[in-house]
Amino acid sequence: MIEFDEVHMRLGEREVLRGITAGLPERRVGVVGANGSGKSTLARLINGLALPTSGTVRVLGLDTRRQAAKIRRGVGFLFTDPDAQIVMPTVAEDVAFSLRRKGHSREEVDRRVRAVLDRYGLGGHADHPAHQLSGGQKQLLALCSVMVLEPQILVMDEPTTLLDLRHSRQVAELLRQMPQQVLVVSHDLPLLAGFDRVLVLDQGRIVADGSPEEAIGYYRKLMA
Ligand SMILES: Nc1ncnc2c1ncn2[C@@H]1O[C@H](COP(=O)(O)OP(=O)(O)OP(=O)(O)O)[C@@H](O)[C@H]1O
Predict the structure, then answer these.
(1) Nearest alpha carbon, ligand 1 atom 26
(2) Which of 56, 106, 174, 202 lies 20 to 30 angstroms, CA to CA, from 88?
(3) Whose Cα sits closest to atom 24 in ligand 1?
(4) How far is CA 34 from the centre of its chain?
(5) What's the gap in Å between 161 CA and the centre of ligand 1?
(6) How many domains does the chain have?
(7) In which domain, by residue range, is 166 found?
(8) Which superkingdom is the protein from (predicted)?
(9) What is the CATH number of the domain that holds 189?
């Protein structure tokens, strides 16, 4: 469960979020809106990467202002730019990095890393230099590094921007299957079809909130 209560966010001179209130218990939540409407800022508030100027964000029943560290253990976050998330030289080492820090045995780490790379189509790339992957493969690697930690909630900011049609469909299918709650910020409207709820942001406010058909229909009119 993700809850925003009268959330305002000021960045520099700009009020980027202007009174966001929403309880989001649904399993698949999409967020759409024009460039600069505040979507990424909203996503970053969910795991305490950013704190609201006023108002409250509660995730898994915890206030991001007080318990960000605990929230971050339960919330996986996927950034738009996968390069920002690569920390180790090879694909397998990168996925293993966060698991090792959690104190798992070497065998357990290897088993889990192999399983997640196979699941997301990177099984044949385990020993490749991570920075030499294609953009789309890097995005899949970032997804592996997050999913291997088995987060309770997954927040994704533009997860399909760099992916070709086949890989976008693969990610869309994976999102449908994941047992976790997933909140996805995206301009990829087909990705959000079948979601439980879609929010439309405009100039820092929620201007539509409903089924993908309703919300995306509203968004299309807004952009016309
Ligand atoms: N650190 C910052 N300081 C000042 N303004 C910022 C900062 N970060 C973001 N902004 C501004 O906040 C507004 C909202 O940005 P945000 O990235 O949340 O929008 P977005 O809806 O995700 O856009 P896009 O679709 O282009 O990714 C933009 O006008 C942006 O310029």
Answers:
(1) 35
(2) 174
(3) 35
(4) 18
(5) 17
(6) 1
(7) 2-223
(8) Bacteria
(9) 3.40.50.300
Of 19, 21, 17, residue with least CA distance to 5: 21
- Check if 14 has its Cβ closer than 6 Å to any atom of ligand 1: yes
Average pLDDT over the chain, rounded to an integer: 93
d(Cα 112, Cα 148) in Å, to the nearest integer? 7
Residue 39 near ligand 1, beta carbon < 6 Å = yes
Kindly report the pTM of this predicted structure. Answer: 0.92
Q: Which pLDDT belongs to residue 216? A: 96
**73 three-class SS:** helix
In this predicted complex, what is the ipTM? 0.94
Around Cβ 61, how many Cβ atoms within 10 Å? 9
Measured distance CA(224)–CA(221) in Å, rounded: 5
Atom of ligand 1 nearest to the CA of 43: 18
CB of 168 sitting under 6 A from ligand 1:
no
Type and span of the H or E element at 75: strand 75-78
5 Cβ contact list (under 8 Å, min separation 6): 21, 55, 56, 57, 58
Number of neighbouring beta carbons within 10 Å of residue 87: 11
Q: For residue 177, is pLDDT > 90?
A: no
Chain segment 192-215, per-residue pLDDT in tens? 998 999 999 999 999 999 999 999
Out of 37, 80, 157, 207, mutate this one to test ligand 1's pocket (max ligand atoms within 8 Å of CB): namely 37
What are the tens digits of pLDDT across the range 68-115?
999 988 999 998 888 888 889 999 999 999 888 878 888 999 999 999
